[in-house]
Amino acid sequence: MSLSRRSFLRGAGVTLALPFLPSALWSRRAGAASCTPPRRFMAWFAPDGMVMPNWTPTTSGSTWALTPILAPLAPIQDKILIVTGLDHQDIASPVPAPIPAPTPNVEGCACFLNMISIDNDDAGTTRTSLDQALLPVLNAGAPPLLPTGLQIALQGDNALCGNANCNFSRVISWSDGAALPNIYDPQQVFQQMFGASLTTGAPTPANTQRASILDAVVAEAQSLSLKLSPSDRLKLDSHTTLVRGLETRLQRLGMSSSAASATGGSCTSPVSPAAQVTLRPIESSFPIMIDLMALAFECDITRAITFMIGEAASSNNYQFLIGGPNASSQYNLSQAEAANLAALTTIDTFEIAQAAALLQRLDSMIEADGQSILDHTTFYMSSEVADGQAGNHWDMPVLIAGGASGGLRVDGRHINYIPQMPFPRPFVGPQSSVETGRVFISILQAHGIMQDTFGMATGGPLPELMP
User: Fold this and answer.
1) What's the start-to-end Cα distance of the chain, in Å?
2) The domain boundary residue, chosen from 272, 303, 322
3) Pairing between strand 377-382 and 398-402?
4) Which pTM value belongs to this model?
5) What CA–CA distance (Å, rounded) separates 392 from 117?
6) Which class for 451: exposed (0-12), middle (13-18), buried (19 or more C-beta within 10 A)?
7) DSSP designation for 249
């Protein structure tokens, strides 16, 4: 008999995925062998580059001081890598360029996770992003509830497509040339995760009529609780409390009529969102998205997530952080970088703090083998450009965390492929000969996909990343 590590509560057409509960598994079959934890992948897109002088550590190796922007990562510094000196300028901006040439931000977003130029595959079928390339391995054995992954973003259409198909500025997940659109509304992410069919992944009709998912499964939750060990009972209580809290927070945000509600009292059927997406404030939606992504991995709802803080040339408004007029978008601030250095550093630090919060959550979730979910996750964070004003695709800011269940060597180092970098460093540093795509090749090989190219990237894995 094959045993799944996943447990569910079911009631009246609703299915609620649960975190791993060892005593629940044991109760289903005495003497059950422990399950091997699944591996997971997450790509995190932070738009408009970073203030690189406030990002780059001044020393390499295992002993380096956290910079202002990287300071929030202190609690998990031993489970990250900072990689300096990665370059994919020739892929993002090939010569000769198409006419009219896409803007640098759109060029960088188009190849962010697939390493294929816009003009090389505008309408082709070869563009597949790293998350999708990993799915056959990640989903081996019992597949998760949502086997094609979750594509999530905070911001929608800003009406800037940069002389290219708009998908290239708004999407980072691709499958065989097809753009996989993002979900922008936390409520829709919640419904996809906790009101989805086990067979199709589609929202269950019963869920669109219900005041609360937990109300539908409360009887089974109480019955299961009696069979659990004290520690698992606490974990179940914590999980249901968090789900209930998410429902409440989503209600307070105000549910749009264009989405099927999992929490409101009066619900409508789902309809396609309008072309211009109405955005929720970043300060309220960001923490909810963090909770949802953590639960998606903890409950084995999916094993691949792509997350975009904003689209290429983001118009995200960080007035709640830095003050100033509403028109001061992140992209506009980056175009006058020197004059807005403090504001941009504050924004960059805030974005890294959100990533650090998620990584710490994953590191606190312990699996059946005694390791954390973060230990079994590969996390990749970067941007479409290195410097927002220059629009360059070399000297990229790259953060790796997790470790692919031991397949990668992620141990707190700063790896610097530009040893001649001067400090204090310039906004744009020198180029190196190390391709960004070699990180992706390393991740593929860490998962047993033994190829030496990915997209248009060549060169094999990076030895410094391999065990």
Assistant:
1) 34
2) 272
3) antiparallel
4) 0.82
5) 15
6) exposed
7) H
